[in-house]
């Protein structure tokens, strides 16, 4: 079931497609973030992502029996961390240019590397240290022009805070995925995460939901469907090609938010972003390479 097939070109195409679909999802979220509360966006994103996910699992004959689990508490922790990361990610997208919010998401391999050392007693290597230093340097370069001059407003500051929080929460969730994947069906891990995110979104109703107009409802539904299909494309990509082959194509996905900011949201790219971009991506690549090499050995 988890063996890698000999179709690397298909895997690469699917990985590029997943990046494009995730970018489309983020564009929908960004377009609605000024009118729709984050909790409501999380609910719609999760609820409509459930449709392609269930169809995919059913076609693979993994629904519903593939959802059986021996580690319900592990799923609860992983799903809660993932749902919290989604809240933080969407809050960051609402407050920052899409390209900057997306760039901060590439810090998750760096934080995963740190979590592996602290929580799993993994070795400290030059790859891990280099990845962490490059990633954090990139963040400092990104925020310093505004913080150093005292020009950073509260909304953007919270955008950076939520972006960093998203990276930390995603790293912790990925550590749990690594643990769960030893005994649990990947489809079950994804399914319970989506359910937890839906419940988290519903829990925000007392804090204020709004009734979207037809355009807003269409964008919310589209965000969910795009996110669901993006996860499926990414899952299939790793079934057709090795992670080391797909790694460079993960970082090509930053192109789409850059284009969206320029053409759709009329947001110019800052010098700080262009300077931070290679640092953060290089740090993420180093940390991800070391993590994959370690887990491949194990």
Automatic annotation (TrEMBL):
Record keyword Zinc present: no
Keyword Zinc: no
TM annotation in the entry: 12-32, 38-59, 103-120, 127-145, 157-177, 189-209, 215-238, 245-265, 271-289
Main location: membrane
Domain of life: Bacteria
Family annotation (InterPro entries): EamA_dom, EmrE-like
Compartments where found: Membrane
Membrane topology term: Multi-pass membrane protein
Protein name: DMT family transporter
Organism: Shinella sedimenti
